[in-house]
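Weekly puzzle thread! Below is a chain. First person to post its structure in token form gets bragging rights.
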Amino acid sequence: MLTKLINFATYSSLKIGAPIDTYLIQTPQDSLHASNIRIIGRANNMLISPEAKNLALLDKSFSYIKEEEKYIEVGAATNANGIFRYFKTHNLAGVEFLQALPGSLGGLVKMNAGMKEHEMAQSLHSINVNGIWHNIHSFPMAYRNSGIEGIILAARFHKTYGFNHKLLAQCNAMRASHPKEPSCGSCFKNPQGDFAGRLLESVGLKGYSIGDAAFSQKHANFLINKGKASFEDAISLIELGKKRVFEASGIMLECEVQILY
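Winning reply:
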């Protein structure tokens, strides 16, 4: 496979990292021959070590939207906003929350991304993994975890008419509380029956920083880069968050951000 040098200090949404040679997957056959490869997509929910190895990116040929009789097929490299705009323009329901989420389809499916009670699994029909189509029910699709092993190349959405403008307004209102600094989005998954942001705030970590890595003053569960945060800064802050919350509540927070060493 070809490689491409990507500087994660500019490419990732958190703006932390270093230049790393990254494999470029151009065909489904490439995915079959890729072993121990980790797809980085648009690196929107990732914290990538300068020492990370075996990273890969889907070629632009996997960025497309194709309408069929009963479903909408979308390539895994298609960005969230492009999917949102297509569905809105064609009065299709199911992905209204994507306007408030960054990333490309592959990553959104991989982590079963969503907002509150709305998530990708609810509107998906099937998923192409390593060139083979699987029904959505083949995967567990739990909270922020699809259970999918392998490389996601495309997905098909149910073709349901009736874009939900009320849901869009709700998602936009939620997004207003998100920080504007470089961020990986939610740092931790919400534990059952509680919120990671509330727990972090309760132990005095809202706005707390190590170096230039910080838990946002606007929303405590957002890990942000105030300028020149290092990988080590971010890891130290994440570990501190876990430690303080566990000591105070007995709850061990689980990372939503994907950390690639």
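Puzzle host: Confirmed. Bonus trivia for everyone else. The first helix runs from residue 8 to 11.
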